[in-house]
Amino acid sequence: MVAFLRSAIFVITLRIFYLLSVLLFCSLSAQKKLAFDTLKLKDADDLHADDYGNLYIYKNKDFSFTKYDSLGKQLGKMMLTVPYKVQSVQNPLSVPLFSENAQEMKFVDQNLNEIQRVDFRQKFGFIKMAYAEDLQQLWLLDESSKRLIQYNFRNDTTINSYPFDGSFDELTDLLVYENKVYILTKKNIRVYNLKFEKIFEAATENAKRFRRENEAILVITAQAILKYIPEKELATVFTDPGAQIVDKNILSFFEIKANNLYLYTLKQPDDTQEQKEPEPLKINTDQQPVQPAEKTSGETGEKKEPEQQSAAEQQAEDPLRKLMEESAEVQATGV
Prior knowledge:
Layout: H1 2-26, E1 31-33, H2 38-41, E2 46-49, E3 55-59, E4 64-68, E5 74-79, E6 85-86, E7 95-99, E8 104-108, E9 114-119, E10 127-132, E11 137-142, E12 147-152, E13 157-163, E14 171-177, E15 180-185, E16 188-193, E17 198-203, E18 207-213, E19 216-221, E20 224-229, E21 233-239, E22 245-248, E23 252-257, E24 260-265, H3 311-334
């Protein structure tokens, strides 16, 4: 009888361990190596991924900008004559590219065909950095006049102009959102209001560009993705010291490592749009899943408690709780 009880306890313990492993796996995302030609990734200086899974590779070596689908099939290619900075591919129908050398901003469509060009040389001094807010407004940092200019390029009018007495050295990106000006250099991020009173500053390493997802401001560096916690800190949401380039879209993290392309899929809760960050290699996140708003019962008018777990976690926890109770009963019977 004692041997039977010990065997039963051992089996239940193994099942509990298995379910705990399943529960842990539900909160992580697996690394997936994509079947992408390494020659296409060689010499890549920047990687962008749109929300449809298409990938964009920019190479300073020949000033080429190429678009591929997730299987590596080429969808479009541009051969540029001077360096350009790709701002974002979040709207693949209108991708903005800025060239400090050419003093222009151009927009390309989903096939990387040019659809519009904005020339700054005739109207402004020397534009150090430009940010396309939408399909008609640009924010320009003019080094000659030391001003931040809000410019409507559709009707060729200057909307506002703000004095900027900060440094123009080593600028890598500019973003303006909700009356806040975000300045990025290779070594730090600075946040100002429109009076250019500094709100926040933090050190960064090899910072490349901003990415905005709704209210969230992200900083893309060579080996990490950081999230700006307003007026508090930069929180690391993805990092791999061995990566050559990292990026993300709304569903996944991407990285080029040893000329191979890897993907880390983000798990999303069933009831919200908030992302749950994976933990491959070295991944940290300060994000907490957003709890759904309390729902009122139609019959009683009482409020129901919001769901706090995903469906996968609940399925794992129900048998887990049952097994723990069975284990306790078996142990009590043995006693």
